[in-house]
Recover the amino acids of this structure.
DNA sequence: CACAAATTATTTGTATACGAATTTCAAATC
DNA sequence: GATTTGAAATTCGTATACAAATAATTTGTG
């Protein structure tokens, strides 16, 4: 289906399916453990290296710090992680697993440890390795392209975008 | 970087980066055209086959109908698509591009036509085709696994999840 | 030390994205 | 024809996910 007509569109569709599968799996894991995929990923990262700052944690899981704040908020709400103000730099916050968080992580099935891609375990080692290398290469190409890709020509003007009246913002004004 | 230690984790990281790149690109396109990636994908699909129902459109872009409702809402708010009640089945709604929508689609740069993966255009045709085939295969494996993958053993009980008092719901009660 | 610049976490706003519940219809069954 | 069953769109709730703005702090420069 769709044949080799337009490889780009095919890639697009595949990635879309992939994301959907990941999300479905994430929901399933959530039902079973109460923890979502991104939350699990964050916890796993914290298990390997405790006391990460929000920024560092965000870097390691390739997410925006603003997103990680929300994830940590919810994990903290469940008592799985803990925020500690850093003594070195009072802007920073150190995040680490609580005892309960470590326990929850131990109880997650092995198959879900690697987040959303449990299905790939059935592939032979060699294929899997090749796939990993392939993907890494693709990401590299896209990354390079995203950085400085001659924009060629801009056609079509940006639409206007009214901005609502701004309100209070910023850090927790304790 | 991470070497061949754990291919599964590598794949996971790559996919994560991929999704992030896609999202970043989507935001960029939005700044330039006022249209986001998913919105553009929906419009492109409607350009190929007008008067799709919400469900059918959702199927074609691999999204949940509930998600597509929101996307169509926003596109309709911008006057780019139009909802028409179906005469055959009064439950259905036919969505199609407006004249303005067609114009906007024409004005989007060619590079962004294929949504979020513009960078891949620099790859040689052959590589691209191989990549497409690879991804399709992977998706198939994951899909099969998601359907019926002997669950092995369930360990760890689901957490409780309090439910708030329900409110009014359902279709637009005109 | 004073002050500008950079960093850090956070909040707000917006857009996905899905599941569950719900309403409106249509179709099948009795 | 009445009832049940099913499908379609929608709403609500929740969780990502990012950009921009903001407050608190640190660092660099004079």
């Amino acid at each position: 289906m769709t044949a080799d007509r337009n490889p780009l569109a095919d890639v697009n569709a595949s990635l879309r399916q992939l994301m959907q599968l990941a999300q479905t799996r994430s929901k399933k894991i959530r039902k079973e453990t109460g923890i979502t995929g991104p939350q699990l990923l964050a916890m796993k990262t914290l298990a390997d290296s405790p006391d990460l700052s929000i920024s560092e944690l965000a870097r390691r899981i390739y997410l925006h710090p603003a997103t990680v704040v929300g994830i940590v908020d919810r994990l903290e709400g469940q008592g799985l992680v803990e925020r500690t103000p850093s003594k070195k730099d009072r802007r920073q916050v150190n995040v680490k697993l609580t005892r309960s968080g470590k326990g929850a992580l131990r109880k997650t099935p092995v198959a879900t440890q690697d987040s959303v891609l449990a299905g790939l375990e059935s592939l032979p080692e060699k294929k899997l390795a090749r796939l990993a290398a392939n993907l890494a290469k693709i990401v590299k190409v896209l990354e390079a392209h995203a950085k400085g890709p001659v924009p060629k020509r801009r056609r079509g003007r940006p639409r206007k975008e009214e901005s609502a009246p701004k309100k209070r913002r910023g850090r927790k004004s304790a």
Summary: The domain at 7-115 of chain B is CATH 1.10.10.10 (Arc Repressor Mutant, subunit A). Residues 7-33 of chain B form the longest helix (27 residues). The CA atoms of residues 28 and 139 of chain B lie 27 Å apart. The radius of gyration of chain B is 20 Å.
